[in-house]
Amino acid sequence: MPATASELVATIRGWTQCVNxxxxxxxxxxxxxxxxxxxxxxxxxxxxxxxxxxIAPQLGGDVIINEDxxxxxxxxxxxxxxxxxxxxxEVPLLGYLPKGHDIYLVERGFAWxxxxxxxxxxxxxxxxxxxxxxADPDADFTPNLISEExxxxxxxxxxxxxxxxILRDYVDSFNARRTKTEYAKYVQRPEATLNxxxxxxxxxxxxxxxxxxxxxxxxxxxxxxxxxxxxxWLKFTGTPVKEYAGLVVDGQAVQFTEHATYQIMDGKIQRIxxxxxxxxxxxxxxxxxxKPVPML
Length: 296
Prior knowledge:
It is built from seven helices and twelve strands. With 296 residues, it is an alpha+beta fold. This is SnoaL-like polyketide cyclase.
């Protein structure tokens, strides 16, 4: 029998509590006998060992995971989640030496469950935000969290199918480059809607200017009727024609992902929390590049 939504949430929270309390021997109980994280296969025991011996030390050993958002699709036994932590690097990270300052790490992803246990996760972190903090530890930095934005009062909430349909139509419009004329059809305040702390339309326009043939595919989508929020895992493909976000022009297409959560209000997008995994694309152009940020 499939696990209930509350049971899936309990699995995620149980895993984070084990990490926070350093109960490494209890970690395997939350993981299915076959577990895949970002394409790497683990057994419950090997994953717990990997976390204890490699991930935790890179994050300073005292990392505490905090819940930001969880959206569950009971039918597909899948959950979208956002977590954050504050840590003090003790070893070189992304090419920077440790400087004794706290760093905020925000991780977003999707998890699939088998028999109520984690069987697959696809995770991403905002490496560019981490680089900014490492480069200038004295600069003020506050992560933009989903949980800090109250759910707006919605008079007529939409059912899950309609929420998902809005995002699917929005992506179709983007791929057909109709957003130049249809953007206001999908976005509540076209010139003010934010993706994190940046105007969403500016991100879209700048990215398309650098990658004109950019196409987006929805890999996974989950909608929550209560909050009227939609979580999506997007896959991008395109060929850069000018340098942008650390990408170079070499005539080759790159692929990268975005994990994003959309607040829907009155049938339109009101707010976006998302980031593109530019490191994924950069790695394709420079395979011998820096090691990635460790995933929680």
